[in-house]
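User: Can you fold this complex?
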Amino acid sequence: MKIGNLLHVRHGLVLGCFCLGFGLVLAFTDRLTSKDIAARALEDRQNSLSQVIPGSIHDNDPVEDKLVIKDAGNRDITVYRSRLQGKVTGVAFESFGTGYGGEIRLMLGVDDQGRLLGVRVLAHHETPGLGDKIESKKSDWILRFTGLSLGNPPVERWKVKKDGGQFDQFAGATITPRGVVRAIKSGLDFYAANKASLIAEN
Amino acid sequence: MPSNYKTIIKDGLWDNNGVFSMLLGMCPTMAMTTSATNGFGMGLATAAVMAASSFLVAVFRKRITQEVRIPVYILIVAAMVTLVDLAMNAWMHELYKVLGLFIPLIVSNCLPLARLEAFAARSEALPSLADGLFMGLGFTIALTVIGGVREIIGSGTLFADASLLLGPAFRSMELRFLPADMGVLMMVLPPGGFFVTGYLVVAKRLLDLKAGKEIQMTGAHSVG
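Assistant: Here's the predicted assembly.
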């Protein structure tokens, strides 16, 4: 074998050894942290659920009581159910809309009558100072949806005012609230379409 | 190469500051400095990665052959970033929720790579550790200052949410200068990052000129 080839082999071995070594280090760290990371993710989920499902209407742990249903866009939606003495009192699930800066992810809580228990924004990329008023931390805008349902206001009024609906946009931003209102409406549609299977056991 | 610690510290914090002198690591500098707290947290995470990877490269520098050194450096930086990412997610979760998206950006920061190539590859382990650490702290100072200026003008606050990062004891650090919604929005948007960074670079050079120092334009020249 020529000297040049041997050198190539040596470089390869050096790189390979480093990959192996650091690969082992990372595998070890992953084992060390995976339990804690899973626990934190569960806590986060419980936190966001507890904001849209009031504690008074359930005695179970909604995070544990979940089922997966496909929505109209063929996307898998995980639905969490709250129960009081075994009876389903409400459900919580994510809904998605499009804002000015991309996807807006919402968590919706809906009771067994189809009324909204609460809406919270989980993640968004809207303009800071303008579009981020949809966060409950920055403004109470998102709280106005609590108690509403598909019939209240009527379906054709589930729009921002600019589109002839009933919801205020806020100063400087129309696209963001429009995306949120649409996402809530589509979440309620999803609930209506799947109501039978969501609260079947009642 | 400077091997005494005083020079290393002075270089890292001021003379050869990663952001203000070398203009390296502009991606996290622009993306993460919408508030002083964000800049501070991002800076500290970067400093930890830089100290660890500089140390490791210096320890293994005789084993790393010239031809494969860049992939090995990137491998080491990426491994350290993943370690920090996993550890923060598990044990500093509140902070992780603020910074998490941006931790992987450290891999794309060319400042660690530049210091590995320019310093750690030809120095002993301990001076390299010091260089990584103080270059990282210089980066932290730069990001905190840029973030602070942008935050004061853009949102009217300073160190907002610092208690999330450092613990409830630091709530008193959170200051408000302007009433809510009075800030100049542009400063927390990307253009503000360029403005503030630019003016601060000018300010540092003016200070250096006043002190009679030669302006160092090391930048990419220090990379092999």
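Helices of chain A lie at 3-52, 175-198. Chain A has two helices and five strands.
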